[in-house]
Design brief:
With 110 residues, this protein is an all-alpha fold. It contains six helices and no strands.
Length: 110
């Protein structure tokens, strides 16, 4: 709701807001029971969403109006000697994974 407040629109629409208990529920509300919805951009790249994309018009919300959710990755101490865990960790931090994340609508630190 911060993005609505930052855009000076919250007071006008607040009585009509419905929030999902999860990302999945919010997405379901947005595509089946609402005229407008705020959902994660990456959801539009799933196979399930491809069926809903006809007639759906979406735009990215200006990043100045909200605080993105920071994601991270860790290599646990118990896995530091695992070649597979280390390879996955290195892959996630690499250029190819960043490109994949971008292709699925995620913001990536360069």
């Amino acid at each position: 709701m911060r993005h609505l407040k930052n855009a000076n629109r919250l007071e006008k629409v607040e009585p009509k807001l419905v929030q999902g208990d999860s990302i999945s529920q919010a997405l379901q509300f947005a595509i089946s029971a609402a005229d407008v919805g705020f959902v994660n951009a990456s959801a539009f790249y799933s196979d399930k969403m491809k069926a809903y994309q006809k007639g759906v018009h979406w735009v990215d919300v200006d990043a100045k109006l909200y605080t993105p959710i920071a994601q991270g990755v860790v290599l646990l101490k118990r896995a530091e000697n695992s070649a597979d865990a280390k390879a996955f960790y290195d892959f996630i931090l690499g250029a190819k994974a960043k490109e994949i994340f971008k292709n699925y609508g995620y913001l990536v630190n360069e």
